[in-house]
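Pilot study result, target chain (114 residues):
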Amino acid sequence: MKRRWISLALVTAIALLGCSASMGRKIDEAKVKNIQKCKTTEKELLEWFGEPSQRGNQNGLSTLQWMYARQDSGIGTAEVQTQSLVVTLSRDGRVSEFALNPTTMPAGQDTCSG
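Predicted structure:
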């Protein structure tokens, strides 16, 4: 019987403490402010943010996307944090477009070429 109460107390403590889950690495918004169109290179982005969560291609241009999500929850509460950084690279490998927490995807245009 004592073991049952200990188990119940452990389960209750875990529930009260809540749980956390996360995906990706938090995006340093101070570094996002350093991104300059037609100047910042893919190499610099990788140094600042690490490997992107996704790589793609839009209108023949490379796209990079970093994503971060974290959920903290407890009894009766839940907090969710999300971040997304989307970058389109010009044909010469420099940032053409970028958006932090975009509501739509960038157009995928090479704004750095003549």
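One observation from the pilot: Strands lie at 19-23, 54-58, 61-74, 77-89, 95-100. A full batch analysis is planned for the follow-on phase.
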